[in-house]
Design brief:
- This protein has one domain: P-loop containing nucleotide triphosphate hydrolases (Rossmann fold), CATH 3.40.50.
- It contains eight helices and twelve strands.
- Strand 9, helix 6 and strand 10 form a beta-alpha-beta unit.
- Helix 5 packs parallel to helix 6.
- The radius of gyration is 18 Å and the shape is globular.
- The two termini are about 30 Å apart.
Length: about 250
């Protein structure tokens, strides 16, 4: 079953003529893990933001169908309620809002609402699985957090919200080896609890894919899909870089 179908997608920066995605097409099936790789400036994060409905990125043509529904006219919160989740490369600070209140509001907007005590127990369980101090539940979202803590916070949200498709935008960026392992274990744990969850991992490097094994690999270059294949593409990129991709594009 196809969960996401992106067809001939063109995206530009809003209020400019700068086109970043130039006809991207691919699919993701139910329960599938897909790695999206490519050099800086290839359009990977633009694709993530366009999927989630960021207003800075305007879809000028093409379609995005998620769970049988066209997303192109939906607001970001409507996409989230359908089961789409985006883990940000640079998570924002939300001053004055605690992790518990933020995640409970998000959870209750998508699922059957939980009381404060029941949600607190769920949150504690998920935080312990990610080696997060449970005191973070009462801290303001990302305020004074390290880079690793912010990324764990994103995976905590993923675990709590249980999306149908999780888009992880360079979740491994800026993390040390231990933090990558812990974050990856959190993603794998979420997937083991819900095998039907699909995952799109956007990354430059092999290291996170040593923990989260992709079923397929898509390579993006200059706003276009130029290669698609199995996990062996990850090793080829690690060994040879992107020069061979540019030569074959």
């Amino acid at each position: 079953m196809t969960v996401l179908e992106v067809k001939d997608l063109h995206v530009k920066i809003a209020d400019t003529e700068k086109e970043i995605l130039k006809g991207v097409s691919f699919t993701i099936n139910k329960g599938e893990t897909v790695a999206l790789m490519g050099p800086n400036g290839s359009g990977k994060s633009t694709l993530a933001y366009a999927l989630m409905g960021h207003p800075r990125y305007e879809i000028t043509s093409g379609s995005v169908v998620f769970r049988g529904k066209d997303l192109t006219e939906l607001e970001a919160d409507e996409r989230a309620q359908l089961g789409l989740f985006l883990s940000f490369q640079y998570p924002s600070t939300v001053a004055g809002v605690t992790v518990q209140n933020y995640l409970r509001a998000a959870y209750n907007s998508i699922h059957e609402p939980l009381s404060v005590p029941k949600f607190r127990r769920l949150l504690k369980e998920k935080m312990e699985a990610l080696s997060m101090d449970t005191s973070f539940a009462d801290r303001y979202v990302n305020e004074g957090w390290s880079g690793g803590e912010k990324k764990r916070g994103e995976i905590l949200a993923l675990s709590i919200l249980e999306p149908s498709l999780a888009v992880l935008d360079e979740t491994d960026s800026g993390l040390d080896i231990d933090a990558i392992r812990i974050v990856s274990e959190g993603v794998n744990a979420a997937k083991s609890e819900r095998e039907e969850m699909s995952t799109l991992i956007i990354t430059h490097y092999k290291r996170i894919l040593e923990y989260i094994n992709p079923d397929r690999v898509i390579i993006l270059l200059q706003g276009r899909v130029v290669q698609e294949g199995g996990p062996e593409l990850v090793d080829k990129l690690e060994a040879e870089g992107y020069d061979w991709v540019r030569e074959s594009a």
